[in-house]
Structure formats: structure tokens, C-alpha cells
Amino acid sequence: MTEIALNQCDGCVLGLPVRDGIHEGPHGYLIGCTAHLYAEQVSMPTPADAAVPRKYRKKPVVIEAVQLCAAGEDESPEVVDWLHANLPDGWEGTRDEGIDIPTLEGVMHASPGDWIIKGVKGECYPCKPDIFEATYEAV
């Protein structure tokens, strides 16, 4: 593992000096750096480290999500509006069988009661309720 000191940038491959979190770029231009804000030391895996199994923690990100209603129930107008706004390519299915959602990995099925998550890049995908509850909490 490579340890990077607080006043260095973990993404700088040019070796530019850092002053108060700002790189002094070529010709006096300044390039912003936020690496120093995260921690006193940052551990970044090297290519050799990436080949070794290790534990990783999910980064804390805020997502948007809605839960599909149970079979036989009607979705609230808010959920339907959210689905229309976030699934512009549409979806197929029924309230009793769930819906099929086009995702980055292909079409995925969301059963009644599943959560539909909008990811950090605006992508949507289904998530089972037990996984959702183990992974997310309301903010």
C-alpha cells in the first residue's frame, strides 16, 4: 500500500507542488485538489495490492429510491411520477408481477416490494428489500 501525506494529492502524477490544497500548475495556473480534505493519510491500492483479496467498505453516498407497492396494490402518484422521471426509456410489467427496467447491465426485473434505486450517475436498478435495508438508511 502507498501512504500519501495530508498535503499531497493522490491523483497528481506530474509531481506539482501543493500549497493549501492547490496545485501550482504550469505557467502559474492553479489546479484545485480536494485529496487533503478526506483524511490525514490516504491508502491507495497499488496494482500489486489489487490482485490480493482484501476487504473494502462502500463509500458513503446519498441515493434516491422508491419502493414498489405490494402485489395487488396501486402505486402512489408520487412513485409513478418518479418512475416516469427517472426511467425515460420506460418499463414493462404489471402491479402484480413487477416491472422490467432497462439498466446499464441489461433488463432487470423488479418484483412487487422491491426498491428502485437511482445511482450516483443517474442510472436506475432494482434492489431487494432485505439488501436495501442492510445497505441504506433514510437521511
Q: What features would you describe in this structure?
A:
The chain starts with a strand and ends with a helix. It has 139 residues and is an alpha+beta fold. A 3-stranded antiparallel sheet has the order 2-3-4, with no helix packed on it. Strands 6-10-11 form a 3-stranded antiparallel sheet. The chain is built from 3 helices and 11 strands, in the order βββββαβαβββββα. It has helices at residues 47-50, 77-86, 129-135, and strands at 2-4, 18-19, 22-24, 30-32, 42-44, 64-67, 92-94, 98-103, 106-110, 115-118, 124-127. It folds into 2 domains: 2-50, no CATH class; 64-135, no CATH class.
List keywords for this structure.
2 domains, 3-stranded antiparallel sheet, 3 helices, single chain
Question: How do you describe this structure in short?
Answer:
This protein is α+β, with helices and mostly antiparallel strands.
DSSP strand (E) fraction?
25-35%
- Topology order in helix (H) and strand (E) letters: EEEEEHEHEEEEEH
Q: Please state the average pLDDT score.
A: 74
Percent of residues in helices comes to 10-25%
| Cα separation of the termini | 34 Å
Question: Care to count the β-strands?
Answer: 11
Low-confidence stretches are: 1-8, 26-42
Task: Give me the secondary-structure topology.
Blueprint: E1 2-4, E2 18-19, E3 22-24, E4 30-32, E5 42-44, H1 47-50, E6 64-67, H2 77-86, E7 92-94, E8 98-103, E9 106-110, E10 115-118, E11 124-127, H3 129-135
Antiparallel strand pairs: 1-5, 2-3, 3-4, 6-10, 7-8, 8-9, 10-11
